[in-house]
Amino acid sequence: MxxxxxxxxxxxxxxxxxxxxxxxxxxxxxxxxxxxxALSGVDGLLLTGGDDVSPSRYGEAAHTATVEAEQGRDEFExxxxxxxxxxxxxxxxxxxxxxVLNVACGGTLVQDIxxxxxxxxxxxxxxxxxxxxxxxxxxWLERDSLLSRLMRERLADADTCEVNSRHHQAVKVVxxxxxxxxxxxxxVIEAIEDPGMRFCLGVQWHPENFFRTGEFRPLFEGFHDAAxx
Length: 229
What we know:
By secondary structure, the protein is of the alpha/beta class. Strand 10 and strand 11 form a beta hairpin.
């Protein structure tokens, strides 16, 4: 049973339940901790959703639509990422998580999809609390990627899957060493991974919302299996 460190956010319960449902032990990583305290005894790092990474982190001025995260969150999470990668700890990064993962490793972000990508799909679709599993659009999976291999357990055709969507930013320049493993039909990057790591996967949608019905359980199972090793 692996101990999974989950970064603090405003909506933690679905992340906790997703870890519990695959046999993991969740522990919450608070920004008041030092990096060493946070990662002590942790077998895998789960990066959660939230507000935007500061554009200063990737050398840009802020777009008018950018809403920066809680003070200190960027610094804390970037330090966690760099240390976890140095230790070869498995990483699963969700929504803001994929964005801060990409920035921490040298990549950049699209700051506002609606105003910066012509013809983009609607990527920010608020879902009522009583309808947490509504799907927004499909994503195209790269063959032979970690993401595709994991999702093959659930899908007869592992080339596409339907996802939910609650984001207005996305990966722009992919960090060195990472590959794109899923895109939306409008070209927006929906997943990246580092094939040089035991497990390092970021997805732009919210698979944690599906812990009851299991559509994305293979992502958490694969993450937990890697952390258990």
